[in-house]
């Protein structure tokens, strides 16, 4: 009918008009007449097509409706005269929440979202960065994130994206007021209330075979499209889901990625390049308070499929962040290669990549570790870690704690108590011995 740009514009205007009132043929045709001049002859057939496709107004899906209209217009022959109608005015659609599987706050418009987050409409647009300025601006003051990187043994550097105070506060509100209502899969133990590295490891105690796999660039692998889909599943209308997605995803500026050192090892160079491609597009930033919860939700299908696969093997599956662990009987040994291949394939289909460099298979004949916790017969801290802490406490009691604080920890006393508490949570007997040594240290008040 008309050129693509004209179809897209007319479709958006008509979708807004159709969603701006009562959903029946007479009213839809009338509103189209208020928007377009002259009213095209194809309006009534178009309205009938829409009502046949949508028995109820898709009040949470204005973009979907606009796309449907655009496809319909493309099919129709060019009308006599060939000139498109003029848009006289724009009507504001009456948006609404979709089906809510969880009791998330009802936010039917971007304005309602801004009010709920305690920011103005302009501030929300600035923080959401819908124009993608974060990727290109050079002036750090115009960015919403601060960047850094950390070296990783056996892997490319880890890029940290820390939101500035204003955006961080908004993200915290999204975390506690929206995301906390949406449950992760039962196999997810990281970043989930009531679960931890300890509960993750406990699921695999005393198993003859423990298999561990690692997901490469866990946060960076989760794209904005997946986050948008999650917010839509929660019931938010398209514009609200788009704003929430923009507030919780980020693309790393070109100049910041250029400053990250490139590895020399060929295998790490490839991993480095993959990370760069992921960071160049909107993704979950490692450093934002919302990213752990959103990553868990993005991995829900992965967890469900791997839990089902493990059950078919009479095995147990859990995940702590990017750490996938499967344990079971000795029959897993003969199937190890097939199991790895299947898990890698499932992960790839779900948008993740298994890092083969960090895969591990252990039997009870050796040390079985899950998230650094020994699980051979019971939960336990690694012997080297225990001996190191015991030596620090012994020397601190003899020579004073200042000599043992070689890393310059600000509150060394609290630091030691935290390490003792961790050992105690895994092995109370060892924890008691460490507390006894700690009690002998003379602390300067």
Task: Walk me through this protein's architecture.
With 445 residues, the protein is an alpha+beta fold. The chain is 48% helix and 12% strand. It contains 20 helices and eleven strands. The chain has helices at 4-18, 25-35, 43-53, 62-75, 110-117, 121-128, 165-177, 197-202, 224-233, 238-248, 254-258, 266-279, 291-298, 300-312, 331-334, 336-349, 383-399, 401-404, 412-426, 428-438, and strands at 36-37, 86-87, 145-152, 155-163, 209-215, 316-320, 323-328, 354-363, 369-370, 373-374, 380-381. The strands form four sheets. Strands 6-7-5-8 form a four-stranded antiparallel β-sheet. It has a three-stranded antiparallel β-sheet with strand order 9-10-11. Strands 1-2 form a two-stranded antiparallel ribbon. A hairpin with a 2-residue loop joins strand 6 (316-320) and strand 7 (323-328). Helix 2 (25-35) crosses helix 3 (43-53), helix 9 (224-233) crosses helix 10 and helix 19 (412-426) packs antiparallel against helix 20. The radius of gyration is 28 Å and the shape is elongated. The protein starts with a helix and ends in a 7-residue tail after the last helix.
Tell me the strand order in the biggest sheet.
6-7-5-8
Structural class: alpha+beta
Helix content: 40-55%
Tally of contiguous helical segments = 20
Q: Could you list the spans in which at least 5 consecutive residues all have pLDDT below 50?
A: none
Q: Please state roughly what percent of the residues sit in beta strands, choosing from under 5%, 5-15%, 15-25%, 25-35%, 35-45% or over 45%.
A: 5-15%
Largest sheet: 4 strands, antiparallel
Q: How much is the average pLDDT?
A: 94
Report the radius of gyration as a whole number of Å.
28 Å
């Amino acid at each position: 009918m008309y050129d693509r740009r004209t179809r897209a514009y007319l479709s958006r205007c008509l979708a807004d008009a159709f969603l701006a009132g009562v959903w029946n043929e007479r009213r839809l045709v009338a509103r189209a007449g208020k928007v377009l001049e002259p009213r095209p002859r194809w309006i009534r057939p178009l309205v009938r097509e829409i009502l046949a496709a949508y028995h109820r107004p898709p009040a949470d899906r204005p973009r979907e409706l606009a796309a449907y209209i655009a496809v319909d217009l493309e099919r129709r022959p060019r009308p006599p005269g060939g000139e498109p109608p003029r848009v006289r005015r724009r009507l504001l659609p009456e948006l609404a929440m979709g089906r809510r599987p969880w009791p998330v706050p009802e936010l039917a418009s971007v304005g309602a979202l801004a009010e709920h987050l305690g920011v103005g409409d302009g501030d929300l647009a600035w923080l959401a960065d819908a124009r993608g300025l974060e990727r290109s601006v050079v002036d750090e003051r115009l960015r919403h994130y601060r960047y850094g990187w950390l070296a990783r043994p056996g892997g490319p550097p880890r890029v940290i994206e820390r939101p500035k105070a204003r955006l961080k506060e908004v993200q915290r509100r999204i975390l506690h007021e929206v995301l906390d209502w949406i449950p992760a899969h039962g196999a997810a133990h990281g970043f989930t209330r009531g679960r931890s590295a300890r509960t993750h490891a406990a699921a695999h105690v005393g198993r003859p075979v423990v298999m561990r796999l690692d997901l490469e660039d866990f946060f960076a692998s989760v794209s904005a499209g997946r986050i948008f889909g999650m917010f839509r599943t929660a019931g938010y209308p398209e514009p609200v889901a788009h704003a929430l997605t923009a507030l919780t995803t980020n693309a790393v500026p070109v100049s910041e990625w250029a400053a990250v050192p490139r590895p020399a090892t060929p295998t790490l160079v490839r991993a480095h390049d993959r990370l760069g491609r992921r960071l160049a597009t909107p993704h979950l930033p490692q450093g934002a308070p919302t990213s752990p919860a959103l990553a868990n939700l993005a991995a829900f299908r992965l967890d469900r499929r791997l839990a089902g696969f493990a059950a078919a093997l009479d095995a147990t599956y859990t995940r702590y962040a990017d750490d996938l662990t499967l344990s079971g009987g000795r029959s897993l040994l003969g199937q190890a290669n097939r199991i790895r291949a299947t898990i890698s394939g499932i992960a790839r289909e779900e948008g993740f990549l298994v890092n083969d460099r960090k895969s591990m298979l252990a039997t009870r004949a050796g040390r079985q570790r899950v998230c650094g916790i020994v699980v051979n017969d019971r939960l336990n801290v690694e012997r080297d870690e225990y001996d190191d802490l015991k030596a620090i406490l012994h020397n601190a009691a003899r020579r004073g704690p200042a000599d043992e604080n070689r890393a310059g920890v600000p509150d060394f006393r609290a630091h030691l108590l935290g390490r003792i508490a961790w050992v105690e949570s895994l092995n109370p007997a060892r924890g008691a011995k460490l507390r006894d040594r700690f009690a002998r240290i003379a602390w300067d008040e």
